[in-house]
Design a protein that fits this description.
This protein is α/β, with parallel strands linked by helices. The chain contains six helices and nine strands, in the order βαβαβαβαβαββαββ. It starts with a strand and ends with a strand. The protein binds 5-O-phosphono-beta-D-ribofuranosylamine.
C-alpha cells in the first residue's frame, strides 16, 4: 500500500531525510506530499525546499485560537491528499480532531524505550541526560502510534541501544539517532505491507 505522507517536524529533520532517501532509492513506495513545521527556522523545512516538497510554517502565533490553528493543519493535509502522518521531531501535541481523522495512521519516533524517559519535557538531549543520570545500561528507540497524550500511543517497534559507561549525552544521542533512522523506515515498510494489526494497546505483526 502506497501512502501519501505528511511529515511534521520542529528541528533539523534527519529522520525525514532518512525516509526521503529510502523513497528515492525505491525501498519505500510511499510519497512525501508535504512538510509542516511550527518553527520557521527548522532544518526540516529547508530539506523539503531543496527537494521540491511543499512545505509550510504553521505556528499557533499566526492564529487567534487553537481551533483555527488545527483547522489550518487539517486544510493543508487535505489539500495535499495526505493519508498518513509522520511526526519526526515535532514538539507539539496533536489535536484530537487530527488524531481521530488519522486513526492508527500517525507515527512518532522517540529516542528512548517507552514508557521510560518519555512524556512532556523529554525531548532532545534531555532524554539522553536522564538516561545517563539514572545509570541505565540500555536505552533505545521507540516508534509508536500517536494519540492525544505525549509519547503514549501503541508501540509499533522498539530497538535497544547499549549505554557505555563513558558516554556523553551527545555520543549516546548520536548512536540512538542512527537506530532511529533505520527503525522509522522499518515501521513505514510494515505499514506499506499491511502487516500490522492494532488491538487496543497492542500492535501485532503478521508474519
Ligand atoms: C529525534 O531524536 C526523534 O526521536 C525525536 O526528535 C528528534 C528529531 O530529530 N522525536 P530529527 O529532526 O529527525 O533530526
Amino acid at each position: 500500500m502506497k501512502f501519501s505522507i505528511g511529515v511534521f517536524g520542529s528541528g533539523r529533520g534527519s529522520n525525514f531525510k532518512s525516509v526521503l532517501d529510502k523513497i528515492k532509492e525505491g525501498y519505500l513506495e510511499s510519497e512525501i506530499k508535504v512538510v509542516i513545521s511550527n518553527n520557521s527556522n527548522a532544518g526540516i523545512l529547508e530539506i523539503a525546499r531543496l527537494n521540491n516538497i511543499p512545505s509550510y510554517h504553521i505556528s499557533i502565533k499566526q492564529f487567534n485560537s487553537e481551533n483555527e490553528f488545527n483547522q489550518k493543519i487539517l486544510d493543508v493535509l487535505e489539500k495535499h491528499s495526505v493519508d498518513f502522518i509522520l511526526l519526526a521531531g515535532y514538539m507539539k501535541k496533536i489535536d484530537s480532531n487530527i488524531v481521530n481523522k488519522y486513526k492508527n495512521r500517525i507515527l512518532n519516533i522517540h529516542p528512548a524505550l517507552i514508557p521510560s524517559f518519555c512524556g512532556q519535557g523529554m525531548y532532545g538531549l534531555n532524554v539522553h541526560k536522564a538516561v545517563l543520570d539514572y545509570g541505565c545500561k540500555i536505552t533505545g528507540v521507540t516508534v509508536h502510534l500517536v494519540n492525544e497524550e505525549y509519547d503514549n500511543g501503541p508501540i509499533v517497534l522498539q530497538k535497544p541501544v547499549e549505554v557505555n559507561d563513558d558516554d556523553t549525552p551527545e555520543e549516546l544521542a548520536d548512536r540512538v539517532l542512527k537506530e532511529e533512522h533505520k527503525l522509522i523506515i522499518e515501521a513505514i515498510r510494515l505499514f506499506e505491507e499491511e502487516r500490522l494489526i492494532v488491538k487496543g494497546r497492542k500492535v501485532i505483526r503478521r508474519k
